[in-house]
């Protein structure tokens, strides 16, 4: 497959994955999902997001990090888990946070 085909394939899989996560959550079956699968999913999502923001053209609109379905508690749980995974602390976060572009750091839509 050519690169655009790979991107189209990934886009379709992401739509289906999102729907399946919702169905699994609604069925209260999250506990049956293998932790290693979730780790692989999060790792891939982090790499994809980082690549997207690194490849963005200067002045391009920020890529939304989350949609309106993610609560503040869920977002903070993920942020803390990512920090702990790399043995970082709030001071480290403050240093990195100050290095990000203002357009990428905060907005009402999670961008």
Strand content: under 5%
Can you give the helix content as a percent range?
55-70%
Output mean pLDDT: 87
Distance from N terminus to C terminus (CA atoms, Å) equals 31 Å
Q: Low-confidence spans: pLDDT under 50, at least 5 residues?
A: 104-111
Strand elements, count: 0
SSE order in H/E notation? HHHHH
Number of helices: 5
Domain count: 2
Rg over CA atoms: 16 Å
Choose one word for the global shape: globular
The main β sheet shows up as: none
Tell me the structural class.
mainly alpha
Question: In words, what does this structure look like?
Answer:
- The protein has helices spanning 3-26, 35-55, 72-85, 90-99, 102-105.
- It is mainly α.
- It folds into two domains: 1-57, no CATH class; 71-104, no CATH class.
- The chain starts with a helix and ends in a 6-residue tail after the last helix.
Blueprint of the fold:
Blueprint: H1 3-26, H2 35-55, H3 72-85, H4 90-99, H5 102-105
Name the descriptors.
111 residues; 2 domains; mainly alpha
Question: Brief overview, please?
Answer:
This protein has 111 residues and is mainly α. The chain is built from five helices and no strands.
């Amino acid at each position: 497959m050519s690169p655009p085909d790979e991107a189209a394939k990934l886009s379709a899989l992401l739509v289906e994955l999102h729907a399946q996560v919702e169905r699994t959550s609604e069925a209260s079956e999250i506990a049956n999902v293998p932790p290693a699968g979730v780790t692989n999913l999060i790792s891939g999502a982090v790499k994809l997001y980082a690549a997207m923001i690194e490849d963005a053209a200067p002045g391009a609109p920020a890529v939304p990090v989350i949609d309106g379905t993610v609560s503040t508690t869920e977002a903070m749980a993920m942020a803390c888990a990512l920090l702990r995974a790399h043995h970082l602390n709030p001071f480290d976060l403050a240093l990195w946070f100050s290095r990000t572009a203002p357009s990428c750091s905060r907005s009402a839509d999670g961008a």
